[in-house]
Amino acid sequence: MAKTPKSNLYEDLKRQILTMELDPDTDLDEASLSEKYGLSRTPVRDIFRRLAGEGYIDIRENRGARVIPMNHSTLRNFFLVAPMIYAAIGRLAVQNFKPAQLADLTQTQERFRAASESMDALAMVLENNRFHEIFGEMSGNVYMQPSLGRLLIDHARIGHTFFRPRNDDMRRRLQLAVDHHDGFIAALGAHDEDAVVDLVFEHWELSRENMEMFIAPQGLKADAFVGGPATQLLEKSS
């Protein structure tokens, strides 16, 4: 499908938010975006509304649009529900995925691995995000996909330091994350639901530890949630 100024604006804003080119709480200038993309105000506002519905931006009455903020409440809610939603998505993906989606996942993983080898942090953020988006598509569940999409926005923003390793331990963790993706693909291909869910929690723990190292406020450790209420609720529903 040919790109249009409107689709370019949509994709560019998503990318800039996920990669932190646009910081949380940044105001979006409707006039300058209209001029830059050669659009009138109406299609720009259409894009704003679409991105607001997907959780990327916040539209405030009489104050315009801004990148969705991150605050203490955001972080607490993120750490509370992420493992439960990721695991539920994983189970549904095993049950419902289509061969073409598995092929798409494999190709995305190839790009993610290549980006990790060249240490292209921005490409890693985007390909990792796409990898997990495909899981949502595989689930085929109209209730879970929006929740996953909203989680992935903050997962990318909170965890962006994961893709800029500063020492050998962080590089080891990044390599393990890449290997986890290969494990997901193998478990999906084998229709092994339990293996996918086990990997979800391993993958989450890896991400969680790295995110907490840099940003989690005191008292927001996720240990109480992984293996706690979230896991118990999931086990009861499975």
Keywords for this structure?
10 helices, 238 residues, mainly alpha
Write structural notes for this entry.
By secondary structure, the chain is mainly alpha-helical. It is built from 10 helices and 3 strands; from the N terminus they run H-E-H-H-E-E-H-H-H-H-H-H-H. A 3-stranded antiparallel β-sheet has the order 1-3-2. Helix 4 (72-96) packs across helix 6 (121-139), helix 4 runs antiparallel to helix 9 (193-214) and helix 6 packs antiparallel against helix 7. The longest helix is centred in the middle third of the chain and has 25 residues, at 72-96. The protein is globular, with a radius of gyration of 18 Å.
Instruction: Detail the poorly predicted runs.
Output: 216-238
Which strand order spans the largest sheet, edge to edge or round the barrel?
1-3-2
Taking all Cα atoms into account, the compactness measure Rg is 18 Å
Classification by helices and strands: mainly alpha
InterPro entries: GntR_C (IPR011711), TF_FadR/GntR_C (IPR008920), Tscrpt_reg_HTH_GntR (IPR000524), WH-like_DNA-bd_sf (IPR036388), WH_DNA-bd_sf (IPR036390)
Protein name: GntR family transcriptional regulator
Keywords: DNA-binding, Transcription, Transcription regulation
Domain HTH gntR-type: 3-70
